[in-house]
Amino acid sequence: MGSFPSPSRPTTPPPSPESNASSYRVLVAFCPKEGGSNTNYFNCIQCYNPSNNTWSHVSLIPDLLENHVLKGFAMVSLGESIYIVGGRLWNKRKPQTSSDSGESVNVCVQVSPLVLRYNVRLDQWSKCATLGVPRYDFACCVCDKKIYVAGGKSYLDSARGISSAERSSAEVFDTRTGGWDLAVGMWQLDVPPNQIVAVDGKLFSSGDCLKPWKGHIDVYDGKQNMWDEADGSRFQTLNLPFSTISGSSNGNWAPIERLYLTMAPIGTQLYFLAGYRVPGESPRTVSMVYAFDTSATIGAWKSLEPTEEEGEKELCSHCCVVQFS
């Protein structure tokens, strides 16, 4: 089975959130992006510790066929458990001969209604009631011990333009009853969201399915049933196509491509975890973390030291945060 290299540790530790960061862990699902004929493909859940900026392996998603991976699913936490919801199942076919290009071929197999629960402390997986509507690339968050899913796509051949029925489709999973119900009229934006998270009873969104970062953060007003721009949230750094993270001593600017962007709420902070592909003879990935303080009136953004690792990995789902007592 393949493995991911451990990223190098930064020269300075990240800033601590107002709450005790040592009790929080950010869980992220990856799979190898490319590989040769000897590469095995799988969904790997990794753990980021914000208190010391280190990564560790947690688990593999079970019950998947060999060289099949889930993408576009949702991963949310309740207590010390995480939930894997929906997604699209892919078969990553290997090169057959040494003369092949060396890149795997991705074949989409099905849209999954699967819902799994993983107890992080006990290292135990279990199955839950399936989605009423199989979907992928949708928004998902937890509020009042209920899991909300909104938007996304339901068919393998879904076009870039999404029908109004799919766009406004929303479901709610009640962990106390173990069943799903429809949530009518909750989401009526022209473009479905990329990711939503909850902080102090408020919902925050970082972008939409066409553009994961729009240059600012949106916050949801439940009383007015509308979204508005969060004060002080404009931040253009995440949109920049160039960076000095080139590994060169002269500080030359080198073009890089953003591989992924995902958002994690810890205390009053929103952590944005971004991965970038660095050009060169061998593939490298630079990880950047930015923190936005939702309670700050000025200077809400902070940037953490980058980490770098060999190879490339693909984000399969947005991250989630688990708090241990």
What does this molecule look like?
The chain is an all-beta fold. 2% of the residues lie in helices and 43% in strands. The protein has one helix at 164-168, and strands at 24-32, 44-49, 54-60, 68-71, 74-78, 81-85, 88-93, 105-111, 115-119, 124-127, 139-143, 146-150, 170-174, 179-182, 196-199, 202-205, 218-221, 226-229, 242-243, 254-255, 257-266, 269-278, 284-293, 301-303, 307-310, 313-315, 320-323. The strands form 7 sheets. Strands 1, 2, 3, 26 and 27 form a 5-stranded antiparallel β-sheet that branches. Strands 21, 22, 23, 24 and 25 form a 5-stranded antiparallel β-sheet that branches. Strands 5-6-9-10 form a 4-stranded antiparallel β-sheet, with no helix packed on it. It is globular.
Order of helices and strands: EEEEEEEEEEEEHEEEEEEEEEEEEEEE
Classify the oligomer. single chain
Q: Give the overall silhouette.
A: globular
* CATH level-two architecture: 6 Propeller
Q: Which residue ranges are poorly predicted, with pLDDT under 50 across at least 5 consecutive positions?
A: 1-18, 242-250
Instruction: Fill in the CATH topology.
Output: Neuraminidase
Can you give the helix content as a percent range?
under 10%
Q: Between the first and last Cα atoms, what is the distance in angstroms?
A: 33 Å
Q: What is the top-level CATH class?
A: Mainly Beta
Query: Which structural class is indicated by helix and strand composition?
Result: mainly beta
Any idea how many domains? 1
Average pLDDT confidence is: 79
Q: For the CA atoms, what is the radius of gyration?
A: 19 Å
